[in-house]
Amino acid sequence: MCGIISVVDRSGAVMDGARIKDALAMMNERGSGEGAGYAVYGAYPEYADCYALHVFFDNIIETKSSLDTLLETWGEIVHEEEIPTYEQPHLKKVHTPWRYFFRPDPSLMTGTPSPEEDIVTYLVMKVNTAVPGALIYSSGKNIGVFKAAGWPEEVADFYRIQDYEGYIWLAHNRYPTNTRGWWGGAHPFNLLDWSVIHNGEITSYGTNRRYIESFGYKCTMFTDTEVVAYLVDLLARRHGLDKTLAVRALAPPFWDEIDRMPPREEHLYRALRLTYGPAMMNGPFAIVVANRDGIVGFTDRIKLRPLVAAEEGDRLYISSEEAAIRRMAPDLDRVWMPGAGEPVIGRVR
Amino acid sequence: MVLGSVPLKYKVTIDRARCMECGRCVENCPYGTFRWEGDQITVHSRNCTACHRCIAMCPRDAISLEERPVDYRSHPLWTAEAREAIFNQARTGRVILAGMGNAQPLPSIFDRLLLDACQVTNPSIDPLREPMELRTYIGKKPRKLEFSRTEAGDVELETTLAPNLMLETPIMIGHMSYGAISLNAQLALARAVHQTGTFMGTGEGGMHPDLYPYQDRLIVQVASGRFGVGIDYLERGAAVEIKIGQGAKPGIGGHLPGEKVCADVSCTRMIPLGSDAISPAPHHDIYSIEDLAQLVHSLKEATEWKKPVFVKIAAVHNAAAIAAGIARSGADAVVVDGFRGGTGAAPKVFRDHVGIPIEAAVSAVDAKLRDQGVRNEISVIASGGIRNAADVTKAIALGADAIYIGTAALVAMGCRVCGNCYRGLCPWGIATQRPDLVARLDPEKEAVHVANLIKAWTMEVSELMGAAGINAIESLRGNRDRLRGYMLDEGMLEVLDVMPAGA
């Protein structure tokens, strides 16, 4: 199950988190109260040039100092603080959420065109695999992920999500099956600029994970969703595919369709499937992936999970359910059901 | 030692009440098990190989066969085979020759791997109602694609793709040469791959002109003996395969007994009539990996870079590292042949004792290529003892792109796995060149049987994929998460990178 909803304001105007909380709670039927989360783009305008690292600490006495040292080795901590939280009757605070505004030192990573991003990626992989008691779950510039184990309203109130503003929001209501309802397992998943919310199960996970790990990524969160973030990072950032092509690599057309395409397109899609076959995602899923430029939603190739899109002025909505969208925007200009594997893209102008 | 002091391996009896003395058994047995004596058929069980030809041909079901009717004193170590091999060698002083694959009673790893299926949280996909894609491309793939934008803003692909073979099913037929098997057998296989959209290997015996109509589905082999190799041969093939070794006899060359070198075989192979065709253990121009790279390049040059070049190795202990070397040689695919791979003739000591199981080898090769970040750039073909659609599915889940079958295709044409291929008397017209025996195999009919087998397995693989919620074979490949080990030890689970059942 799981319920997802995402909105982008293509003019870049910001929205606060109050309404997406209500929209997400509309889909409580799709959740189990064991995980919910929100991602907001534009969360930290005052530190917009720093990487906002959100960390779950098991305890801040021992593990925090080792992370501080690691970060200071690789750059400068511009600002840090505990993420403000507000006690909720049914939500047990098992971790301490912390945020660092971090500026990596690009001179420390050689042989790459993107040293800052590579340092942050390295730190995320290293901390999540080798530093027990610390988990970096959000690492983008001007982006914040807020998640915990609980119902959407509780998690929203725990972080006072209405106090944050952004031009892109992603939200997820979780019904866990493969892994327990732990904080790290809640969505959205984030790496650098990329965030993912996902409803479904990726039956090709074993293939995808081994493929992405051969490019130096490490899957650390015991869930199939994080692999999506890494695949998108590989395809869109490292290999430079545009969003449509990246989605088409992840959920490609069937060979029968490719065979019928005009020659140039046929050639392109054949090459895409041959090259990125191991990145293809199989199984039932509906996914929204975001970066600072916008959002893209798509489903598996036979649409085994629901996905609906809608527009109202500059805002594009993508969700599991129309009812959730209407909770945010009752008067929509247009509502439609995207076809299987067909990307819905909302770009910020 | 008195001849005949060894107990009978098989005992054949005729139910005289049912026998109508039609003589079909006499005509059909090339080993001389049945003989007319006056107006009675007598049985000479010592000649029997359990090929079942007589049983299959008897119109009255009058023949029965018993294995080891008089056995030795049982002993777990000194088995009948162990004792008989010693008798045999004490008598002859020679290497024992054997046919088919490894005959040791070792457990099969495939049988201890279990496949996954979907329940509730993810729906299974019904191949009768939804598309299911088994199409497989064998050949080099780019690591990444390069694009440019036209002035109109369209995406333009800059990367040029290397030639790939397009298979409609991941099941191919491996290399069985003309010489080892009959022309009729090869024709039947060639027709079957043509019908099912897949490919077969010519083996190291050259290409007979009768196979030319099917050449676009044939992978031509270049082995250490270079039998039948010429520019015409290379140009006819859809791909070229360099054979370094084979699973049934790693470390040694091919062996075609002179009995099977008839006039036609001698012409196709370019060797003298009736001579043993023993190809050398190594290629005499390959003494290191860089020499292999040179041969790969020479073959690509010769065929104008239009054909994929495969390299086949036997699954030996260090197969993974060797495959990584092959991946760097410019080869488009590596074929790994496990220790259960069949053969027309091999020294028994090699067939039964050298090499490792394909399940372990393909897992190690896939993992090593991944480690080095080149897995998707080269195809991996697994072979050696694949018996059914489950084996195919498991081999792919362990990391193979496609598989070769050999014995299974022969069984589809009548072979009973009697293991006497090296004697050239195959009563089914498969592993023989004797014209009267070859004529028993009707290429038209047997092509249908082999094609049926490939179709049936393909259907079963798609059913298994659908049950696992997968609708494209790319998502099965190397997806070891969808396998569980049952009664496999921890070390083996680690090699296979598979979790135990229940985990």
Topology at a glance:
The complex is a heterodimer of chains A (349) and B (503).
Chain A: E1 3-9, E2 15-16, H1 18-25, E3 36-41, E4 51-57, H2 62-74, E5 75-82, E6 96-104, H3 115-130, E7 134-138, E8 143-148, H4 152-159, E9 165-166, E10 168-173, E11 189-191, E12 194-200, H5 205-213, H6 225-238, H7 243-250, H8 255-260, H9 263-276, E13 285-291, E14 294-299, E15 308-312, E16 315-319, H10 322-328, E17 334-336, E18 344-347
Antiparallel strand pairs in A: 1-10, 1-16, 2-9, 3-8, 3-10, 4-6, 4-7, 5-6, 11-12, 12-13, 13-14, 14-18, 15-16, 15-17
Chain B: E1 10-14, H1 24-28, E2 34-37, E3 40-43, H2 53-57, E4 63-67, H3 80-92, E5 97-98, E6 113-115, E7 136-138, E8 147-149, E9 155-157, E10 165-167, E11 171-175, H4 183-196, E12 200-201, E13 218-222, H5 231-236, E14 239-243, E15 255-256, H6 263-269, E16 277-278, H7 289-302, E17 309-314, H8 319-327, E18 333-337, E19 346-347, H9 348-353, H10 358-371, E20 379-383, H11 389-398, E21 402-405, H12 407-412, H13 435-438, H14 443-467, E22 483-485, H15 490-496, E23 499-500
Parallel strand pairs in B: 11-12, 11-21, 12-13, 13-14, 14-17, 17-18, 18-20, 20-21, 22-23
Antiparallel strand pairs in B: 1-4, 2-3, 5-19, 6-22, 7-10, 8-9, 15-16
Helix pairs in contact in B: 4-14, 8-10, 11-14
